[in-house]
């Protein structure tokens, strides 16, 4: 078998394959034997009719066509492997010889994965944040630890974001109490946005003893209802952080002094960043190179990726005992709509 490769314009190549007549003749002979098992000829048992008789009955071309269907995919596959062709779609194959007699020859135009030309990559420069922890980094982490040991102190002023307010809250819809929105002595952080934004908007600027009444949109988009709130503010407290001293360090860690705790925090931050630096450099280099690439992705490659992802999803569901067709039906989708999304 002789194979040649020719690069074509665009993202495709042409393989030309020539199969020796003697080799192909063996495939033709095997094809006639298969045909003999299917064709009934008086006086011969299935599979025993001689080739000459079959050629006279159905023609030589019929046997060669059968041989072509059998061996052409194998020869094509070997040609791909020989030249390590990264095919992304089915080829356009033209039989150029061997249909009626002689050696088999064919040409296959194959769409291949496009190769990106990256201009300017030699001048790329990447910036990675400093690995060593800065003073601000250390201070921020120490403040996080201090907040875990903070105490709440009553204040005689209006509530602001970050303050803790103790409230009695009643949330209703059409006069009916809503489960989870009606309770007493509830400690709530102003600005947390835990339920609906209107709660924070109304709590800002309030003081102990204030009573609030307001409406808000229901947080569940499927609920076509308005929430009505009645809130009584019992107290306003602020979070007071402990001093960053030796006593705090001994209470919050295994260290006896704040200097030791600070050094440990610095080392931990630096070690974490050192571990992340390699991954960050790789990701940023990949993005920087990708930004230099001007490439039109072939439709066949996109379709192949979509099909692969859908197949992977179906296999994962099957492994979990979920019927993929039933899942799509429940989601109101079919393969066509899934591919579009």
Cα-atom radius of gyration: 38 Å
Number of domains: 4
Largest sheet: 5 strands, antiparallel
CATH level 3 topology of the largest domain: Alpha-Beta Plaits
InterPro entries: PPIase_dom_sf, PPIase_FKBP_dom, Trig_fac, Trigger_fac_C, Trigger_fac_C_sf, Trigger_fac_ribosome-bd_bac, Trigger_fac_ribosome-bd_sf, Trigger_fact/SurA_dom_sf
Organism: marine metagenome
Keywords: Chaperone, Isomerase, Rotamase
Family: Belongs to the FKBP-type PPIase family. Tig subfamily.
What does this structure look like?
The protein is an alpha+beta fold. It has 4 domains: 2-111, Alpha-Beta Plaits (2-Layer Sandwich); 116-133 and 244-295, no CATH class; 151-240, Chitinase A, domain 3 (Roll); 299-340. Helices cover 43% and strands 23% of the residues. The protein has 10 helices and 9 strands. It has helices at residues 21-38, 51-58, 60-83, 135-148, 197-203, 246-252, 258-292, 299-319, 324-330, 335-340, and strands spanning 2-7, 12-19, 92-97, 104-111, 151-154, 164-173, 176-189, 211-217, 226-240. Strands 5, 6, 7, 8 and 9 form a 5-stranded antiparallel β-sheet that branches. The chain has a 4-stranded antiparallel β-sheet with strand order 1-2-4-3. Helix 1 (21-38) crosses helix 3 (60-83) and helix 6 crosses helix 7 (258-292). The longest helix is centred in the C-terminal third of the chain and has 35 residues, at 258-292. The model has no long low-confidence stretch (mean pLDDT 89). It comes from marine metagenome. It catalyses: [protein]-peptidylproline (omega=180) = [protein]-peptidylproline (omega=0). Residues 2-144 form the Trigger factor ribosome-binding bacterial domain. Keywords: Chaperone, Isomerase, Rotamase.
